[in-house]
C-alpha cells in the first residue's frame, strides 16, 4: 500500500467519523466531490494546499490528517 492509498483511507475514516458525505466535505473544503472521491481511492497526489483545505474542513491541524 502506498502513501496515497494510506492517506485516502485516513481521509475516508475522518470523514465518516465526522458524519460527512463526500459532497458535504467537498462543500466545506472548497474542493469538488469527484476530487474527494479520487483522493479516498488513492488515485490523487495531494498538495499541502489541499491538505490545508481538508484539515480546515474538519477543524483539525494538518498533522492530524496523517
TrEMBL record:
<keyword id="KW-0238">DNA-binding</keyword>
<dbReference type="InterPro" id="IPR010982">
    <property type="entry name" value="Lambda_DNA-bd_dom_sf"/>
</dbReference>
<dbReference type="GO" id="GO:0003677">
    <property type="term" value="F:DNA binding"/>
</dbReference>
<dbReference type="GO" id="GO:0003700">
    <property type="term" value="F:DNA-binding transcription factor activity"/>
</dbReference>
<dbReference type="GO" id="GO:0005829">
    <property type="term" value="C:cytosol"/>
</dbReference>
<dbReference type="InterPro" id="IPR050807">
    <property type="entry name" value="TransReg_Diox_bact_type"/>
</dbReference>
<feature type="domain" description="HTH cro/C1-type">
    <location>
        <begin position="11"/>
        <end position="65"/>
    </location>
</feature>
<protein>
    <submittedName>
        <fullName>Anaerobic benzoate catabolism transcriptional regulator</fullName>
    </submittedName>
</protein>
<dbReference type="Pfam" id="PF01381">
    <property type="entry name" value="HTH_3"/>
</dbReference>
<dbReference type="InterPro" id="IPR001387">
    <property type="entry name" value="Cro/C1-type_HTH"/>
</dbReference>
